[in-house]
Structure formats: structure tokens, C-alpha cells
Amino acid sequence: MAEPLTVSDERVSPKLIWTVITAALGGLLFGFDSSIVNGTVEAIRDQFSLHPTVLGFVVSCALLGAGVGAWTAGICADRIGRVKTMLVAAVILFISSIGAGLAFGVIDLIIWRFLGGVGIGFASVIAPGYIAEVSPAKHRGRLGTAQQMAVVLGIFIALLTSALLARVAGGAAEELWFGLPAWRWMLMSAAVPSLIYGILAAGLPESPRYLASRGRSDDARVVLHEVVGMRDEAAMDARIDAMLDTVKLERRQSFRDLLGGRYGLLPVVWIGILLSVFQQLVGINVIFYYSTTLWQAVGFQEGDSFTISVITAVTNIVATIIAIMLIDKVGRRRLLLTGAAIMTVTLATMAVAFSQAYIVDGEPVLPGSWGPIALVAANLFVIGFGISWGPAVWVLLGEMFPNRIRAYAIGVAGAAQWLANFAVSATFPSLADTGLQLAYGLYGLFALLSFVFVFFLVPETNGRQLEAMADFTEKTPRSGVSQNFPADGSQKQNR
């Protein structure tokens, strides 16, 4: 067994920064492709005369595809490599965005959006895992947040693109270029970042951990030297030996490797799944998928609604920058607890605000100061999410699983995240018809539950080498009990 690794020989080199930025563009595609639909919702509803339930499925069917993509991305990455998996994602997203923009009817629109979702699922899973594998342990949290920064930039660019196209055309349903309405150009615009991502990803080095697992130790050593910035030969040899030690413990990965423990799956896998699910059940993507429709529903004009959506996206970027500065200093766990508390309060405020709405000419309107209160609460909610659950969950998913199950475990957690996202997004139009206060009250309840979950069950992973994650330990604040999640699935408690 190799000696414990130190991080003294690891540094953030310019090439590492470029590698991380390029890999994180998968997150930009994730944010762009999942949010570009925001500006098209009303136009698609009118174009195809859709019932709210069907409209919810059209918007969220991409998330079902993303669940499939997230489930299979880990398998693909383990079989053909991380970089080739990124290229597969780029190709799928390019083709599906063109197809969705040129869809003849609601059925083929759903098919193209589902296929695009598969690409989104690939991109969402492969980026954090790859970044974690090429990053030094002491900088992994900050570098890992590049994924979330790319996601929020993708959301911002998507909403800005929608707003600009709608303004040029005079509305999302109005004709823009070549006889096509603006909403179709919104969907096709996703082809541009997909193409850029594919070109840049083709130049990335393969993950050193994947190379070592395939017996290419010399190539892995080159990546550690040129990308990770390691200079000491002994340190590189120790790192390669540690990787090979974990590879020797691995079997050919399968879903059976995730089984064990009291509740069917390994405890650490359940923690990853629940982190993913809670990240979505707080309703964050309702803001980014439906915000234009949401603000129109309470009295704002279409142009103002697009502007508010862009402002919200900028707020999300600022919050993510704050998270980048804090995540390696404060730790993942404290950020999650702080964010859950902020989200609980702001979602409760939004529920109260929307309960004050009354109907004017068949449309809900927020009286007096309740409109600004709801708007401020929504942006504070985005800040609470952006500084915590947005980046921290992706960082944790990239680093918390033992090497022998990492590919499958990330895939399962990612699939759970997308299925939860689908459930929230598909049900929102129907919940909104019942009353927005019900929807946001429900999301607030899940935010409260997420606080309890993290407080009692989520350990800290800050600063630990990936090779040491099989038995990481963290004392819970209430019990003073160490929680270990070893590779065999047993849960040890040491006082």
C-alpha cells in the first residue's frame, strides 16, 4: 500500500486552470440548454395549444433524458474515457438543439428535447468527476466550483439570449429570421456553445486516474506533471501507486457494487442521492425554467419579465463567485447548512407574498408592496442557493465516493437529481394553477428538511485526497460520533 499522500508538491498551474475551465464548459451547456426554454414557454403553449400538464411535460421532458444521460455517463466514462464522453455530449447537444428548433409538432419537439436532455445529463456528470480527478486536494473545492460557475453563466447567457431575440423580434412568438419565430431561434442557439465545447474538449488531456486504471502509468505521470503541476518524481510515483492501489481493489464496476448496508445501497450512495434530490426539491429550477412566465402571471409585462429573469441570473453568478471564495475556507457542510436556512426563510416569504394575490381580468396581481417583496425574496433565495447547494453539491458528488464505485455512484446520484428536477418542473404549471403559495410553501418545507438532513448525516470532505474517500470520517455536531462510510458498506461509529 502506498504511503499517505501529501499535497505540498501540487499547485494550480496555468494549464490546470485552462483544463478545468474547458471541462467546466460542460456545465455551461447544462445551464444553457436547460434554461433556454424559459423564454419559449408561452410561445410554445400558444403555438401548439397545450394544456398546462402537457406544457409542463414539454418543458421538463429534457430532464428525463438528463436522468438517462447521467445514469449512463459514468459507465461511458469508465469504458471510453472522460474526454471522449465529453465529445459524445457535445455532439448530442448540437444535433438535438437544431432538431428542437425545427420541430414540426409537439411530439417531435418532445423527442428532440429528450435527446438533448441525454446530452445535458452526460455534461452534468462528467465535468465534476473529471475536475475532481485532475485537481490537487487542497484546491479541489475551489476548482470544482468552476462547474457551478459555468452552469450559472450558461443560465445567464441563455436568459440574455432569449431576451435579446425576443426584443429584436418584438416577442418570442413573433417572426425573426427566415420566416421562423424567435422561440425557434432560442432553441437552436444552443448549437453554438455545443460546437465550441466539442472543439475545446477535443484538446483536453485524459484523466490521470483513468489512464492509471488502463495501465498507462507513464501517460498518467505526464498529466500529473504538465497539468496538476507536480515536479517531484517521488511524489508522482506515490500518487500513481495510490491510484494503482485503488485500481487493484476494483472489479469491473456494476450496479451491484453500490449495494450493501441497512437500506439496500451503501450509506455514502444514499447521502449522494439525497443531496442531489434535495438540491432540486427546493424548486430552484422553477425560477430558471419558468421565471418569465412566473412574473407575467403576477402582473409584469413580457419585456419586464425577461429583464427580471436576466437580473436573477446575474444574482446567481454573484452568489457563485462568493461560494468559490468560501468553499475551501468554510467547508462544504457549513455552506449547505447556511444555504438551507436562507432558502427556508425566503421561500416561506414568497409563499406568503403569493397568497396575497387577487384576480384582475382573469390574471393574478400582487397588491401594494407584495410584488417587490416577492421579487426581493426570489433573488435572496437564488443567493442562498448559489452560495451553497448549487456549487457544494456538485463538488461533493465529484469527491465523496470511493474510487471503486465513483463512476456508477456519480451516475446514480446524477440520475436522481434529474428525476427530482423533472418532478418539480413537470408539476409546477399545475401547482401554479392551484396557487403559487402552495408551490413555494412546499419548496420551503423541503428546504427545511434539507437543513435537518445535512445537520445529522452529511460529513465534511474538504481537503481529503480522493484515494482516502473510502473511509472518510467526520464528527457530527450533535452527537460527537464519527461517521465512517467504508467501501464494504458497513457503518462504523467510534466515540
Fold and architecture overview:
The chain has 19 helices and eight strands. With 495 residues, it is mostly helical. The chain has a single domain, classed as MFS general substrate transporter like domains (Growth Hormone, Chain: A, Up-down Bundle). The radius of gyration is 22 Å and the shape is globular.
Summarize the structure.
The chain is mostly helical and 495 residues long. It has helices at 14-35, 41-48, 52-80, 82-101, 106-134, 140-169, 182-188, 191-201, 208-213, 217-226, 233-249, 267-281, 284-297, 302-330, 332-354, 370-386, 389-399, 406-434, 436-457; strands spanning 175-177, 180-181, 259-263, 358-360, 363-365, 473-475, 482-484, 492-494.
Secondary-structure map with pairings?
Layout: H1 14-35, H2 41-48, H3 52-80, H4 82-101, H5 106-134, H6 140-169, E1 175-177, E2 180-181, H7 182-188, H8 191-201, H9 208-213, H10 217-226, H11 233-249, E3 259-263, H12 267-281, H13 284-297, H14 302-330, H15 332-354, E4 358-360, E5 363-365, H16 370-386, H17 389-399, H18 406-434, H19 436-457, E6 473-475, E7 482-484, E8 492-494
Largest sheet: 3 strands, antiparallel
Tell me the CATH architecture: Up-down Bundle
Oligomeric state of the chains? Answer: single chain
In angstroms, what is the radius of gyration? Answer: 22 Å
Query: Which CATH top level class fits?
Result: Mainly Alpha
Supply database-style keywords.
disordered N terminus; globular; mainly alpha; disordered C terminus; two-stranded antiparallel sheet; Growth Hormone, Chain: A
